[in-house]
């Protein structure tokens, strides 16, 4: 059986995808927060992870 590859858009180049499992109440809170800041849930998770990496000194702010 042949596996299908998902097309990569330019903004996804170099990004890894993975599955994350979180409880429903956390997801709903995250979804509301993302909507309040005009982001997708995925975009909100990326933003929060980036912020924490910068705050911890593990990543330079770009």
Segments where pLDDT lies below 50 for 5+ residues?
none
How many H/I helices? 2
Structural class: mainly alpha
Please count the beta strands (DSSP E, at least 2 residues each). Answer: 0
DSSP strand content:
under 5%
Shape: globular
Q: Element order, helices and strands? A: HH
Major beta sheet summary: none
**Rg from Cα:** 15 Å
Average of per-residue pLDDT values: 88
- What is the distance, rounded to the nearest whole angstrom, between the alpha carbons of the first and last residues? 42 Å
Protein name: Arc family DNA binding domain-containing protein
GO biological process, one term: regulation of DNA-templated transcription
InterPro entries: Arc_rbn_hlx_hlx, Ribbon_hlx_hlx
Topology at a glance:
Elements: H1 24-36, H2 41-55
Structure described in brief:
By secondary structure, the chain is mainly α. It has 2 helices and no strands.
Structural summary, described in words:
The protein contains 2 helices and no strands. It has a domain of 39 residues. It has 62 residues and is mostly helical. One of its GO terms (biological process) is regulation of DNA-templated transcription.
List keywords for this structure.
2 helices, Arc_rbn_hlx_hlx, 62 residues, mainly alpha
């Amino acid at each position: 059986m042949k596996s299908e590859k998902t097309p990569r858009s330019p903004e996804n180049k170099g990004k890894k995808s993975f599955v994350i499992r979180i409880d429903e109440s956390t997801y709903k809170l995250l979804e509301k927060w993302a909507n309040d800041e005009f982001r997708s849930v995925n975009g909100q998770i990326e933003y929060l992870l980036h912020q924490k990496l910068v705050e911890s000194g593990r990543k330079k702010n770009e």
